[in-house]
Amino acid sequence: MYLKVVLFKAKALGWLSRALGQGNGVMVAGRFILRFAPSAVSKLARGKRVVLVSGTNGKSTTAKLIAEVLGTKYSVAHNHTGANMFAGVAAALGANPKAEVAVLEVDELVLPWAIEKTKPELVVLLNLGRDQLDRLSEVRIVSNKWRSAISADSSKNLSVLASTDDPFVVYSAEGAAKKIWFS
Predict the structure, then answer these.
(1) Is the CB of residue 86 less than 8 Å from the CB of residue 124?
(2) Measured between alpha carbons, how far is 165 from 73 in angstroms, rounded to an integer?
(3) Strand 122-125 relative to strand 159-163, pairing
(4) Does residue 112 carry a pLDDT above 70?
(5) pTM of the model
(6) Minimal CA–CA distance to 37: which of 78, 76, 8, 79?
(7) Of 82, 139, 150, 160, which sits with the fewest C-beta atoms within 10 Å of its C-beta?
């Protein structure tokens, strides 16, 4: 019941943000959810088939394509605005809590957290580039974090769809029990 109240208030805050011309309301809603229901992402992801998409380039397009395809058969929670940090993930799940599937574009540094919280069925790893070193530190460090998060999947139900064109992505994906490669 408490989570429903938080989601209702988050939705109202998002509406207010849009009405006042202060943005699209996604970030304020997501931050509200995380602040007042810290376990919301895990609860909202439970029972859903979750797909996470991450990489330096192509996340938005790839996630949108997957969401559109799955949307022909299932109700889908998707962060279509490109809000791919913690609040964006919470807002996407909170905006459609009854969805059967969640397709979430996830920032490179947020991916380990998202794997832990959402217990995805599939993680799509696109690439890791050096264009954001000011924010990501060293690409090797991000790759190690991805590999640790993927290897930590205790259920072994996680499949990873990964690009063979990027050696950092290959290294990250090798920790998965189930791997599907693309080029």
Answers:
(1) no
(2) 31
(3) parallel
(4) yes
(5) 0.93
(6) 8
(7) 82
Pair of tokens at residue 177: 């029990």
CA–CA distance, 151 with 160 (Å, rounded to integer): 11
Show Cβ contacts of residue 33 under 8 Å, excluding neighbours closer than 6 positions.
Answer: 6, 7, 10, 40, 87, 90, 91, 94
Rounded to whole angstroms, the maximal C-alpha distance in the chain is 48
> Each residue of 60-98: b (16+ CB within 10 Å) or e?
eebbbebbeebeeeeebbbbbbebbbbbbbbbbbbbbee
- Give the pLDDT confidence score for residue 183 in this predicted structure: 94
Q: For residue 76, which amino acid is it?
A: V
Distance between CA 100 and CA 47 in Å, rounded?
A: 8
Residue 1 confidence (pLDDT) = 80
Query: Could you tell me the two tokens for 114?
Result: 């998202």
Average of per-residue pLDDT values in the chain? 93
- Residue 122: beta bridge partners? 51, 159
- Strand ordering across the sheet containing 76-78: 76-78, 101-105, 49-54, 122-125, 159-163, 178-182
Question: 25, 15 in Cβ contact below 8 A?
Answer: yes
So what's the pLDDT on residue 155? 62
Task: Show the beta-strand stretches assigned E in the chain.
Answer: 49-54, 76-78, 101-105, 122-125, 159-163, 178-182
